[in-house]
Amino acid sequence: MTFEGLDGSGKSTLASGLASELEKRGIPALLTREPGGTTLGQGIRSLLLDGVEMTPISELFLFLADRSEHMSQVIQPTLNAGVVVLCDRHADSTVVYQGYARGIDIQLLRDLNVIATLGVKPDVTFLLDMDVETALKRQLDANRLGSQTESFYQAVRAGFLAEADHEPERWRTLDASRSPEELLNQALEQLEHLRQRRAES
Ligand code: TMP
In what order do the strands lie in the sheet with 29-33? Predict the structure, then answer.
């Protein structure tokens, strides 16, 4: 499962809360993130976030290199071992940030994501939706990627909502203005519904 949303939306808190809850229930789970879920990825994350100037295409290829490595070294083997993977940002962030917000062709990004992810898609993606103004106030560390204009973040928010509309069976949109406890409970309920639906089918 993956967690998406604006910077400052609380997705990392929800992902780690859910991972602990699953562990408590005896369900093996791995919490990971993009960029930065592998040794190579940590180097890529520093390059991306530390203010090195680069073109949007260079940035795109760094995100994809991070994802390709993460998928083959961590996510795929972990899923094969029967462990639930909770990934804080994944392929949808590329479609939304590099596509909807930076203007790179969205179909091209979808195709590149298929290569980087080995065609594996999350069973469920939680979108933590919140208004841009509140998200900006909540952004504590303004790194290079976290210091864009308000219109950039408006495009990001609209992009996530459009993607969620486009594939409603995978996306679960949560109101990120709720408290962390409420969000955790809502996500657990959604997972329980999914589990029941699968058990019935
Ligand atoms: P984080 O704040 O969730 O750690 O993400 C780091 C930044 O990277 C965030 O501003 C979103 C951005 N990002 C992209 O632009 N494209 C991507 O594919 C990913 C995974 C993140």
Answer: 29-33, 84-88, 2-5, 125-129, 171-175
